[in-house]
Amino acid sequence: MIIGQFTDSFPPIADGVARVVQNYALWQHKDGDTCYVITPGVPGYSYEYPFPVLTYHSFSIPFKKNYRTGIPQFDRQFYNELKKVKFDIIHSHSPFPAGELGRKIAYDQGIPFVATLHSKFKDDFKQYLKSDIITDLLIKRVLYFFNQADDVWTVSESAVEILREYGYKKSVFVVNNACDIVPKPKTKEILDEINKRFGFPEDVPVFVYVGQHIWQKNIKLILDGLKLVHEKNYDFRMLFVGDGDKRQEAEQITEEYQLTDKVTFAGIIQDRDLIGNIYARGTALLFPSLYDMSSLVVKEAAAMGCPAVLVKGSTTSLGVKDMQNGFLVENTPESMCEVIIKIIENPELARTVGENATKTLYRSWEDSANMAKERYRYLINRFSRTYSYGS
Questions:
Q1: Contact 99, 72 (CB under 8 A)
Q2: Is it true that domain 188-361 has CATH number 3.40.50.2000?
Q3: Who contacts 181 (Cβ-Cβ below 8 Å, separation ≥6)?
Q4: Cα Rg, the chain, nearest whole Å
Q5: Over the range 290-318, which residues count as b (16 or more CB within 10 Å of their CB) and which as e?
Q6: Distances 272 to 45, 64, 113, 299, 322 between C-alpha atoms, Å
Q7: Which CATH architecture has domain 2-178+365-390?
Q8: Alpha helix (H) ranges present in the chain?
């Protein structure tokens, strides 16, 4: 089976979609199958992977820091090379240029086309375009894209409702996201390494955020909550990992709140072992996002026994029970503050909740990727039978 993963987001971009595609390709490019990744290229980045990566010329997106796009059909060398590949199935991970290219290639080659909804595009459009009219027009375009797919996927049961809100009426297949961090013991060496690297005192609670630094992720709620914790004279450290167009504003707010001695902005970290060790040192992951559908970082943290603090009723809180395998807060600074203080005052509770998170929330990418491959085979067989009957 020759699989094409078409994505507008791939390393060195560090977001959830990039990690999904990377791990799909890693685990699907084996056992006699070949998995290609097709994505806009980032100048200077070396795409050295166990699987083939085809990139096309791209340019930066002004309103989305670190992201790139392009018109793949204009890169003739890339396009000619791509057309030589005879795919069995194509999977697109966005309705934008790379995803649209996947749809076109699938149509041209007469093969099944899969499309996954990873993001709440309506929220993105509203945030960046500031226009309900343009947002509605773009959502219609997104809906058209998914209606052209032979199989539409989402990353959680609750994410299906987002597709319904957009107007999608057909069946939806759910493949849950997973984790590429393997659970391991929290050794003293690991904890000491993180303390030394970031200057953390040995016995002080450390809270962690990993992800894009954008307001849709609700990161200001973290800062607002920490401000209240600080004013109540509790000691802690906070580590933000990642980047985004609101990082500078978040750093400015940190200064205004007089939290600079307690909050560290580490930037993007690509080293997955280091990310795992950061979770190991973390007392809890603070992830109050109302934007994510099925956050990878919750599962990553769970792998290392680091419980997540999530907003009650959010899509990403699906499967999390308060004070059992995670912590749930209201979408207010006061509630965030209250739960952080509860965690600080009850370290044994946090450890127990983290252990339960490992047992109930962790899932390997090998399992998810293999589930996807089984679905691909079913679709290829179904498509072949339908096409043969139709001819």
A1: no
A2: yes
A3: 272, 275, 276, 279, 300, 303, 304
A4: 21
A5: bbbbbbbbbbbbbbbbbbbbbbeebbbbb
A6: 18, 24, 31, 14, 28
A7: 3-Layer(aba) Sandwich (3.40)
A8: 16-28, 76-83, 97-109, 121-129, 132-147, 157-166, 188-198, 219-231, 247-256, 272-281, 296-303, 333-345, 347-361, 365-390
Domains of the chain, by residue range, sit at: 2-178+365-390, 188-361
Q: What is the mean pLDDT of residues 152-156?
A: 91
Residue-wise pLDDT tens digits, 273-283: 999 999 999 99
Q: Which amino acid is at 116?
A: T
Across 130-139, average pLDDT: 88
List residues bridging with 152 in a β-sheet. Answer: 115
**Cα-based angle 340, 341, 345 (whole degrees, multiple of 5):** 120
Report whether pLDDT(289) > 50: yes
Cis upstream peptide for 95 (omega within 30°): no
